[in-house]
Hints:
Mean pLDDT: 96
Oligomer: single chain
Number of domains: 2
Structural class: alpha/beta
Bound molecules: pyridoxal-5'-phosphate
Helix content: 25-40%
Strand content: 5-15%
CATH architecture of the largest domain: 3-Layer(aba) Sandwich
Distance between the termini: 35 Å
Number of strands: 13
Low-confidence stretches: none
Radius of gyration: 22 Å
CATH superfamily of the largest domain: Type I PLP-dependent aspartate aminotransferase-like (Major domain)
Shape: globular
Largest sheet: 7 strands, mixed
Amino acid sequence: xxxxxxxxxxxxxxxxxxxxxxxxxxxxxxxxxxxxxxxxxxxxxxxxxxxxxxxxxxxxxxxxxxxxxxxxxxxxxxxxxxxxxxxxxxxxxxxxxxxxxxxxxxxxxxxxxxxxxxxxxxxxxxxxxxxxxxxxxxxxxxxxxxxxxxxxxxxxxxxxxxxxxxxxxxxxxxxxxxxxxxxxxxxxxxxxxxxxxxxxxxxxxxxxxxxxxxxxxxxxxxxxxxxxxxxxxxxxxxxxxxxxxxxxxxxxxxxxxxxxxxxxxxxxxxxxxxxxxxxxxxxxxxxxxxxxxxxxxxxxxxxxxxxxxxxxxxxxxxxxxxxxxxxxxxxxxxxxxxxxxxxxxxxxxxxxxxxxxxxxxxxxxxxxxxxxxxxxxxxxxxxxxxxxxxxxxxxxxxxxxxxxxxxxxxx
Length: 411
Ligand SMILES: Cc1ncc(COP(=O)(O)O)c(C=O)c1O
């Protein structure tokens, strides 16, 4: 049986323990197990934002664009080198994940004009499935949704008609982590291109886009990267595709000699061709600040702590929660999961609400999942232990049973 003394010892010997105090609110009573949805605010980011607003914007005014204009690429390079296994010139910060997904999926489909099938997972994040369906509908293509995206599931549906395989590296509900290398290789051997959604991977698990020969990838920065609500997303396009891949939104930030204001769109032959309009500078400053913190911690140490936290969570769930009607809805093998764990219970919604009333923030995911995020920089072993203890006590005492389920709930 794991004791409080055990977890306090884990915190004492945690090589990342100093990072928690570098976030606003880390010392309040809240047990925050939702850093995989919206990460906490780094103290340095609040300072950085103040500087960009009060100095660069307030006094530099339009002259600050001289420096700002290079940020989508320079911060993309930093993110690529430290968290994505991408060499220079293949990552930019821009738009939202949904918009980037649209741009890159469209570019991929244009590169395979005679093929009519897109492969994705029926459990993929809704925006991914909607964007792919929209593209398929506009072009008269077919989307094949597989149930569960293990290598054999993907391989079973690949054919010489497959244009694109678009999957999430880490599943937003179960936390299942897919083998990027073997799925990418299988898609390539069928002549298809791949597009990975890295929203639940970036900053939590090592990603090796170049080494896996990935074609396209997208992801957000408001989860483990801690860049704040609505922070701009990133996109990756392998440099081998920079001259051939064209995106569908012909904006002036992708244009050669942008400020000559030419009459004909002719995109640059570099990653900037996937930019569209004026970059969100304040948001990019926060992405940079978040990435620097993760880079200082190091992705291998982040991954090791993520595994230790999620393993502790599963052990506590087995001993405390299984007798109360819970089951583990995430892979038990650490190598096959990201940094969150979902617990199944028929009353997951009411239990999640009761947890929030008891100062523990989880996420509820339909229909029966309590999703618990273990963001390695901001979650201590003691936080997790205490959150799980409150969960056990709420359920064993029935303190969730009087919570009403709204007739039409927005989640
Ligand atoms: C896996 C995944 N993809 C895409 C999105 C949506 O991204 P955005 O709202 O930035 O377009 C999310 C949001 O949580 C997500 O978890």
